[in-house]
Each structure stands twice: as C-alpha cells, then as structure tokens.
Amino acid sequence: MPNSKRQLAYVIDLNKCMGCHTCTIACKTLWTNDKGMDHMWWMKVNTMPGKGYPKDWEKMGGGYDANGKLALGRKAEEADYGKPMEFNYEEVFYGGSGNKVHLAPKEKPGWGPNWDEDIASGEYPNAYFFYMPRLCNHCTRPACAEACPYGAIGKREEDGVVLMVDDSKCASCPDHVCMKGCPYKEVFFNPLRNAAQKCDACIPRMEKEVAPACVRQCPGRCIWVGYLDDAEGPVHKLVNEWKVALPLHAEFGTKPNVYYVPPLSPPRLDGDGNVDASQPRIPTDYLRSLFGPGVDSALACLNDEIEKKRNKEESELMNILIVRRWQELLGEFPKDPSEVQA
User: First CA to last CA across the chain, in angstroms?
Assistant: First the structure.
C-alpha cells in the first residue's frame, strides 16, 4: 500500500479522560444510529484493566508477526459484543403491575459496551483503574486493508485515513477477513448491508474544516487531532518531540496513529494507610504491556515537567497538556459545525 502524503493522528491524554462517554455518544448519534449498527461503537471508552469491547479483543489476534507477515486472528462474534438489549418498557409503564416490576432487559445479556465499567483491579487499599477511549487507529500499515481480498478498504493518500471504499466489493467476501486482520477489532459487520463498516475519521466534517465529533465534543479537553508532519502542532510535539504520547500495542505491527499519554498513578498505601512512595499504584508492568517500554521515560518526563510547574518554572509540555483554549485541540479543523453548510 503506497504511503500517504500526510498522516492524520490523534493524541488522547488518559490523565484527563473522566469516562463521561460524550465522545462515544457524539459518534454514535452521528454515524452508527441506524439499522444493523446497534453493536457498533466506533468510539468507545473502556475501563482499564478490563476485557473491553468487544470482549477480550486484545486476545483475538490479527496484525503482523515478528517478521512483518500478515497474521490473521479471529473476528469478533455476537457473543463478544453482546446482543442489543431490549427492555420491558410496555410491562413497566402500561402493564398495571405497579412496583411489582422494574425496568430490565427482556433477555439476560452476556456482555455489552461498558460491561465492566469502573471495575477496579488491585487489592484494597490499592485498587486502581483508568479510562481509555478507543477508535480506529487509521494505521500506517492497516492490516484490515491488507487482509481484504477484494480491495474494499483503502488508505487516503492526502491524509492517511483508512476507509471502507466499496460496499459492493465487501459484500462479495464470505468470511469478512478484514475483521480478522484488524488486531484492535475496530471493523464491524452490518448484517443488513452485508458489509463491513468502521470509523471514517469524520471525513465529511474534516473536508469542511470541522474537527471529528469525538474531538470537538470532549468536555475534558483530552483529545487532540492533527497531522504528524505539522511541526508546530501539539500532536507532533507530544508524539515526536516530547515522546510522551505512545501507540497502543505497537507490537501488533500496524503502526497505529492514535497515541496515548499514559496515566499517572497515585502512590501505594500500606496496611495502615501510610503512603508507600517506592512504587506506583498502577503497575508499570501493566502499562508496559499496553504502551511498550517507552512508557517508563514518558512517565518520568511527565513527572519532571509537573515538578517544574509546582516550582513555578516554565514548561512547554504542561502548557500543551493543560489546553487553556479548547481550540488548541482542533488542529487544522477549527470551524464551528453550525457555521458550515451540511
């Protein structure tokens, strides 16, 4: 697959994500609120550590092996997403049973989005968790596209966005191999259209210079969008200069273009509630399993720059991460959607 002229990328600061799911709902209402798309959450916020969505996606395989050869995994099935829940509204509101019935799914689900939300790991008094927004990584080497035998997935030359380009070709595929190729399980199957679908980076918005919905709607100011070659932009600086924004599971080999500022951790407490500053509460080994060995230097850099701020010294990194003006998140897509013709 030829290289793109530019590469769009996202940076997500996990220290600022509060798990509000505004990005999730912004995406859902805009792109996946249609028939056959109930299970599709192109943007979702997982509680980490957790099994995520689809369930146990990190163990499903895909991407490339150590030799750079495509290594197909398995595709997510209905049980991994959980059936869309139908509730007993008629019985509760019109059944005449009063307080004898309560709102509940008609069929007991086995999994679903946010199923393990806010469930902590660790043991008292050192429980921990953090939130991680996830979307298509618009990889430099997208395994979904390489796996597709019909050429139905393409990577845009002008910005590196990975798109489903031809539903008719996709419908010819009996096994939906793209879903096996993607190690992040960010390709979904629509049974009514008999085609795969995925995040398109809000291309119709960006072509009008409007930022993707997940970026613009985030109340925590934790998501940046921009081009990696924009040397003056925050995305470039966080990824390439300060090196505090890291890819998720780089070992999958797809060269993902969603980067994460890893979560800082409070210190551990001993049995008497005293601070044990010798080790963080979030195990560094776990963070290494997500973001690779570079997480050690990223965390050290973050702590050093925070200390500068505490000492009333200047810190370019902290100024970027604080985002005093939310427009700093939008990169080259500053326009208000209300001012742009649909």
Answer: 32
Q: Please compute the mean of the pLDDT values over residues 274-302 and round it to a whole number.
A: 95
Tokens representing 298? 């990223």
Query: Tokens in use for 85?
Result: 């829940």
How many CA atoms are closer than 13 Å to the CA of 181, on its beta-carbon side? 20
267, 280 in Cβ contact below 8 A? yes
Rounded-to-integer distance, Cα 250 and Cα 261, Å: 14
> Parallel, antiparallel, or unpaired: how do β-strands 8-13 and 258-261 relate?
parallel
Instruction: Fold for 8-83+112-339, please state it.
Output: Alpha-Beta Plaits (3.30.70)
User: Between 295-310 and 284-291, two packed helices, what is the crossing angle to 10 degrees?
Assistant: 120
Kindly report the length of the chain. Answer: 342
Of all helices (H) and strands (E), which one includes residue 92? helix 89-94
> Rounded to an integer, what distance in angstroms lies between the CA atom of residue 160 and that of residue 162?
6
> Hey, is 17 helix, strand or coil?
coil
Instruction: Quickly list DSSP for 293-305.
Output: TTHHHHHHHHHHH
- CA dist 92 and 170 (Å) reads 42
Domain parsing of the chain, residue ranges? 8-83+112-339
Cβ 32 vs Cβ 40: under 8 Å: yes
Which structure tokens are listed for 239? 């990824």
Q: Supply the DSSP string of 144-205, one letter for each residue.
A: HHHH-TT--EEE-TTT--EEE--HHHHTT-SS-HHHHH-TT--EEEETTTTEEEE--TTHHH
Cis check: omega of the bond before 49, within 30 degrees of 0: yes
d(CA 74, CA 78): 13
Cα–Cα distance for residue pair 217/247, rounded to 1 Å = 23
pLDDT tens digits, residue range 105-132? 998 888 999 999 999 999 999 999 999 9
Over the stretch 183-225, which tens digit does the pLDDT of each residue have?
999 999 999 999 999 999 999 999 999 999 999 999 999 999 9
User: Which pTM does this prediction carry?
Assistant: 0.95
